[in-house]
Amino acid sequence: MAVLVTGGAGYIGSHMVAELLENKIETVVLDNLSTGNREAVLCDRFYEGDIKNSSDLDKVFSENEIDSVIHFAASSLVGESMSNPLKYYNNNVCGTAVLLEAMIKYDVKNLVFSSTAAVYGETDAIPITEETPVNPKSPYGETKLAIEKMIDWTARSSGINYISLRYFNACGAHKNGRIGEWRTHETHLIPLILQYSRGLRDGFKVFGNDYDTPDGTCVRDYIHVIDLVKAHTAALVYLKSGGKSEIFNLGLGNGFSVLEIIRAAEKVIGQKIKYTVSERREGDPAVLIASNEKARKMLLWECKIKDPVEIIEDAWKFYLKHPKGYN
Ligand code: UFG
Fold first, then answer.
1. What pLDDT score does 185 carry?
2. Which residues are catalytic?
3. Distance from C-alpha of 238 to C-alpha of 173, rounded to nearest angstrom
């Protein structure tokens, strides 16, 4: 039986595919390549297609024996979702509805869904547990929460079992340097620092240094993408051994400030990183740190990589091998 990875050409999806292959699990990928990269997909069974097209899903499900889906395919930029919310409702919510219909049609019972800490919005809770009230502040977070609920209602009537995983700040890259984090339109801290340091961009800015944090810059929970995808494998094992549907936070359980990340990057790259401090970015809470206790206990999973230097070393290895990103 095979696992279908939707969005398997994206940053986290491509690492998931590598992880499944390393575990000798049959893997099928569906991606429309709107933001993903074919070069990042390390498996042969690749379908270029869209979760919104039921005919694309029919082809994938009828040509393969799929018993589980790991669903990453989505639009995922907070800023873009503010200016183009309907793109997010269409791609994320409508797309997942079509996927769920296909799962029911082909009697596929296991689903792992890629959700986000953005469902919590601006919260003062430290750490954030799965019980922390949800209050998304962007169409991105809002659509991910809507999908979580849509999956839950669908699961109750269809017999699908699901795990929704709320990611904190995914970062780093595969140790092999072949795959990593690369987007045409980049907004995330670590890839931006690396691109600035390579001269690919000008004018790196730290968004605010007057937050109520030890050094005044925002604190985030940076989880290595390899630890993240291993949690998905653990979620599949959990579902296949009869575990019931659940939601889990995925984070390191520890926070680092923007300045601490800059210092870690300087260590890895061996050069000073120039920056200016600008206004706060709208919607950035001071501190977002996950409680990962539930995932550790129930999925028997834990984060192995705890040092931002190691995370950035892996990200850097990818940048050195792909100075201009994927082809
Ligand atoms: N930052 C800068 N300068 C930059 C870019 C980022 O100072 O050029 C700061 C941000 O203000 C923030 C931190 O670096 O304090 C991390 O920012 P990212 O954009 O890398 O990540 P976010 O914490 O904003 O976003 C993450 C995930 C999103 C998710 C969100 C949930 O990447 O997918 O958490 O809150 F939606």
1. 86
2. 140
3. 25
